[in-house]
């Protein structure tokens, strides 16, 4: 669909010259819907700079209204985790979520959200944009008539909230914990009873004791869910999610119907939101964590080194098993790990020494 | 200037309905010029994903040709460092460079490129986009009829190239070194004879012995200049430039003449390029450094801790003196340092432990 063709058609059909431009404009308007796995008002996932609703605003502004995307938070049009099927069927054109929610259908999709002990924000985007990651994502989704773009990233996440301190991996045993993705499989191997709950259901489950522990994002987002009122032990490091990609899922046939300029607008807006959303977390997490510790009695701690070392051993095993069980996963896994080794050799002499500079 | 007004005028003037859309389009086209402080073919600064020429392509694609920006590398229209005056006078609409090149006119501008022992990519963008940095940049440039947007970032840079090893700060004494920005003042305080040369002049100066040492960017960009053929000692850490912002400088009156949709396109393209250019460096530096070491006899080393500690002491002194000498610098300095303290308290429990995770 070429916008200039539309313009020509609009002009030919116009009775009076004055009406031509507005008719042409009306014919080139796309009214789309975007659903979201996260609930109304969620900071980063729904609201705020670089969020999915901000993405919709940017696209409307850049296209001067030629593409309008109506946003529906979880539950406003469909339930939280039904976006994949809704986009696939064409019921909606777009969905915002994380690809690891589709692990049941496509295990390899998990690598396009986050990998335990994997890549941070910079490494993940270097892999996706410039080292073959996007091509593998396209290859995985194309047979399903889907296309994905990264449109956000939380950066390093917090390990999560626990009712009791974690002193050894034995403390994970029989814990009921909300934790999605590959990290969930690592915890399961250590005896955790893993639950996959959407963000909006975490607080009531933790408060009522349906779960004993929960991972969500980081201080800024977690505080809004009120998790500090249901558990007090809050751990770092982000071994489980060193970064976390927000997925913009698009129906491929609808995408193909967009003229090239609107495709460029959508792609560029998603890339801008990727940076803007991430740096918004970076700007707000310090103050949020300070507030949680000072005003809500939260006990923030680093996971003991021995616990992290055991988590790494189990992660290697879980990832190897997943790759062995599914050729598509193996292909993505091997590419991811090759890039990780390369990127870490650079990070070891750039970002790592930066963090060790005198303050 | 409202695009719809233009469209209406175009339509009224059209003799035949068929011609109306193309006349309307012709009247809303902006043909702009962008100059650049870096020479033809420079990776990241001129060519490649997220570079200034890529920015121009993105803007043309998104606007469907309603704004076309003709790019001129250094020397193609004006010399390397004359972009500030060219944009100010309106001779060109845009310039790509680094704000620290304008230190002679506006000392505070240096803080919008990089600060020794300052903020990395994530912190710098968190400050600029979400913690008041852009507002301060606007305040500094507005009286000059200028507007700036960040449009790229190298990430952590390499300390640079030296003909002899650096074992103590005494080895800096009487060294003739190419080094711009605030780090140049730190080296000067340690007895370095500081030279400000554009990128394209570094290799001939280093090869002919006009300078003994040079800082440029990182492995990928430095290799293209051939610096490995003129000096063999290549140091990290990036104490001097923990990140480095590419500045898109815009003539404010020309900016004000753009309709809102084209302003949104320019802003979003700059933000997307900020991420894309940075992650391109991240994706390519490891292989470039390996190649330099294995095939060009480069000796890559970390600066000794005692040297870094002394550099920090001198940096604190130099920054304090600069702030005391200029109220505009003091205002920016104080805001930058307040945010740095806050951001580092978050980085200390997120990115820093990430880099210490078992590989």
From TrEMBL, chains A, B:
| Keyword Metal-binding recorded | yes
Where substrate binds, per the record, is at 157, 178, 215, 241
**Chief location of this protein within or outside the cell:** periplasm
One GO-annotated biological process of the protein: transmembrane transport
The UniProt GO MF terms for this protein read: metal ion binding
Pfam families, alphabetized: DctP
- Report residues binding Na(+): 216
Task: Return the InterPro entries for the record.
Answer: DctP_fam, SBP_TakP-like, TAT_signal, TRAP_DctP_sf
Q: Subcellular location, in the record's words?
A: Periplasm
Q: Does the keyword Ribosomal protein apply?
A: no
**Record's CDD domains?**
PBP2_TRAP_ketoacid_lactate_like
Annotated PANTHER family = EXTRACYTOPLASMIC SOLUTE RECEPTOR PROTEIN, PTHR33376
Annotated protein name in UniProt: TRAP-type mannitol/chloroaromatic compound transport system substrate-binding protein
What is the organism of origin for this protein? Answer: Actibacterium naphthalenivorans
